[in-house]
Amino acid sequence: xxxxxxxxxxxxxxxxxxxxxxxxxxxxxxxxxxxxxxxxxxxxxxxxxxxxxxxxxxxxxxxxxxxxxxxxxxxxxxxxxxxxxxxxxxxxxxxxxxxxxxxxxxxxxxxxxxxxxxxxxxxxxxxxxxxxxxxxxxxxxxxxxxxxxxxxxxxxxxxxxxxxxxxxxxxxxxxxxxxxxxxxxxxxxxxxxxxxxxxxxxxxxxxxxxxxxxxxxxxxxxxxxxxxxxxxxxxxxxxxxxxxxxxxxxxxxxxxxxxxxxxxxxxxxxxxxxxxxxxxxxxxxxxxxxxxxxxxxxxxxxxxxxxxxxxxxxxxxxxxxxxxxxxxxxxxxxxxxxxxxxxxxxxxxxxxxxxxxxxxxxxxxxxxxxxxxxxxxxxxxxxxxxxxxxxxxxxxxxxxxxxxxxxxxxxxxxxxxxxxxxxxxxxxxxxxxxxxxxxxxxxxxxxxxxxxxxxxxxxxxxxxxxxxxxxxxxxxxxxxxxxxxxxxxxxxxxxxxxxxxxxxxxxxxxxxxxxxxxxxxxxxxxxxxxxxxxxxxxxxxxxxxxxxxxxxxxxxxxxxxxxxxxxxxxxxxxxxxxxxxxxxxxxxxxxxxxxxxxxxxxxxxxxxxxxxxxxxxxxxxxxxxxxxxxxxxxxxxxxxxxxxxxxxxxxxxxxxxxxxxxxxxxxxxxxxxxxxxxxxxxxxxxxxxxxxxxxxxxxxxxxxxxx
Length: 707
Description:
By secondary structure, this protein is α+β, with helices and mostly antiparallel strands.
């Protein structure tokens, strides 16, 4: 290795460039900016204002925060539904006055005052919801009109009844408790705000109405086409906003025991700014209650801090305006350019120098020398199939394969002319295996590990494994489960080819060539899925050894086959038994003579091997060229190889004409025939194996003779 290549190896293999792309794909990154802004705001004002974090100061601030958070929570839900509510300040003020009027002037109970406050908010929210949701008026103009009307009405009522409120002698211990008391160091208003936020968050993320709100905010047309009652959903968001504002109004009425001209003034601007600063999208469908609360803390800390520093109302309004403008700009630009940024940074190739290999060219005289025997294979299902990636036969000699349409097709013995859809799973069924009870186990790309019973009942066995908390890469979800096999004790061993890409993005994974493949095991006894091995370049085929004490698995992009020991002194360890092959290995299955069949999905080329030593070139390629012009592994020519327990190559078969099976992803020996599948093929091949045992079957090899 030259010095330049050594530097490239250090640069691209040791510097974790891929973590940037991984972080940007995470939903929690949307919370990072508001969280950092929150920490910075608290840190700045806490350091420059004496006593900012004293208990008495915090208690007064949190009372305001509780009331303000109520309003922000309602505003957040409306915005998540794709709307906006500029009337929350008026509703807040009118609800406050309703409570004050009923309690201090009419001298009714505090609970009747609460009911009056809630009724005010619900009525105004219903008016907004009806106009915006059912009459489909513009939310901005409609709520602006409601705001003007509500504010005018409040000013009239306050002017008319201000003296009566001041002369009232009505008192209530409940009112004093709500307005002034604390519980475990926090005011009542804060506890109520926390309860409301938790309930709202659960409703949005765990209930059907909450999902409907997010769906409507994401795309009203799509939500309507999906059967969601869009108008009712929009209506309910405004009713909820009015409800939240009315609770806030009631709480401030209890705290101040009155209402004045400044009640709720500019509250709609503060609430809108808080929601947007927190990361709730103005376009709808993106955000959360937690984000809204972070924005509420930022805005309230900013405004109160500026007042305590001696700055006037004008400065506060200017700062809020700047914050809103910056937040809106970030929201719009990030939403528009997020995918562009990810496309620029996500694919992060590494350096790899492939080892020298032997030739597979006919006449080369190497063990890998391909011949033309597969071209003589008979065709099954010609033109009826799309992508039979794996093939398998049951005890009754019936033939099964998956298709790219999410189906498992069964061809009936003995002539395999008649077929039927055995089961519809969805996704792309890849590796197949029969367990002892006759259940057909399948790895389904981007979905997980599935089982189909003999009576065609489809059951998901696993879609995730234990999360590695030390890894930023999300390795809990099974992204590309590929092939599987079953041990004598019933445990299912299977590969997840890559943790970074789904099955259809295999080309990106090959170009990046990062070691993110793994070997996993599913235990049917407790339903657990565990990762056994990690750090391989596209783990693929899996096959139990004939004695059931170890298994073989393929590492496609590294052109290697490994053996993992289940029992004995090497238990829990893996060793490479075949390395530097001229082809990319895929599925592995047992042979009748005690050896193993292995598919080659494609052949190595000098150009791609060379590109693996130039990660910067591959990086530029994915950014500047359309995908159909990328350089990636050759999958147009492959074959079938037989190897023994020690990894020695016994024979190699191919289709040099390229007419029938130029690319092979699977093969299965059964009663003297080799059945051949390919992920890009439109047929299954059946090739008679010279000298093979005509009675040998894979089910009998695993589970004994047919009972």
